[in-house]
Amino acid sequence: MPIPGTPSRAELVDHLVKTRIAGEVATPRENNLSHYRQLANGNRHYWFGLELGDRWSDEQDVLAVMAERVGVNDDPEYRYGQDTIDPELTVGGLDRMAARLRKAADGQQRVLFATGHPGGMLDVHHATAAALRTAGCEIVVIPDGLQTDEGYVMQFADVAVLEHGATLWHTHSGDPMKAILTALEREGRPLPDLVVADHGWAGYAGQHGVDSVGYADSNDPALFLAEAEGTVQVTVPLDDHVVSPRYYDPMTAYLLAEAGLA
Asked: 94 vs 43, 99, 145, 191, 236, CA distance in Å?
């Protein structure tokens, strides 16, 4: 069960491992390597709204970044079995994200929240949005009537999501964020000062020149490559869909406390 209150760093590391948000995660090694290969081979489904060109065409280069920034096994000959996310890297990412949230709060900035993984991350983003609103930030309200080839771009609990067939939709695409930013520009409204998101929502925002921070799984390398290049400011490594979304509550509490938003 989630631990009560705001955990210490050590308590959070222990919790992340016990709930498999980090440590020995559910995503198998072969799935990780398959996604790294797909990205390196130019499959834009795995680019998350970014323009990577031919800079990451060697999957071994991708693996090296993922070993450094996520904590997956760095041995290219290790092809099958258990893979890992280093919980210390997860907490380090949360610390860096907290610093950017603090900057947003101090400047009462405009912040947009979005998720391509609503089954796992919706409440994390919602709680963060609520804390920033209390601190005086403007939580960006997206324009009405937006859609992509996958579905409708909606906003629930202050978080932009993709809706299809009356269901919140899992998506890697950057197109929903593109639809939002394009519509804001068309309406003459200012772009966000900060996007807090995941998947292609975070990737496209960073590619568009908006400050972007986000979360990503060990089989989703694009945002970590973007952080390495400076296109995305922070990418927190974690399993983005564990057994219960309540398992993320201590992580969120730690993040907001470190940002001075608790």
From this structure: 29, 9, 34, 24, 6
Alpha-carbon distance of 159 to 114, in angstroms, equals 5
Q: How far apart are alpha carbons 165 and 205 in whole angstroms?
A: 26
Q: Closest Cα to residue 31, out of 85, 80, 87?
A: 80
Tens of pLDDT, residues 53-112: 999 999 999 999 999 999 999 999 999 999 999 999 999 999 999 999 999 999 999 999
Sheet strands (E) in 23-64: 23-24
**Cα-atom radius of gyration of the chain, to the nearest Å?**
17
d(CA 119, CA 128): 16
Give the Cα separation of 196 and 205 in Å (integer): 9
Model confidence, pTM: 0.96
Residue where the block lists tokens 């947003």: 104
Q: What is the DSSP letter of 86?
A: -
**pLDDT band per the 50, 70, 90 thresholds, residue 5:** confident
Task: Write the single-letter amino acid at 103.
Answer: K
Q: Which of 92, 87, 84, 167 is nearest to 122 (CA)?
A: 167
Q: Is the dihedral of CA 195, 54, 230, 213 positive or negative?
A: positive
Q: At what angle do helices 9-18 and 249-258 cross, to 10 degrees?
A: 160
- Write the DSSP assignment of 150-215 as a string of letters: S-EEEEETTEEEEEETTEEE----SHHHHHHHHHHHHTTPPPPSEEEEEHHHHHHHHHTT--EEEE
- Retrieve residue 49's tokens: 């709204």
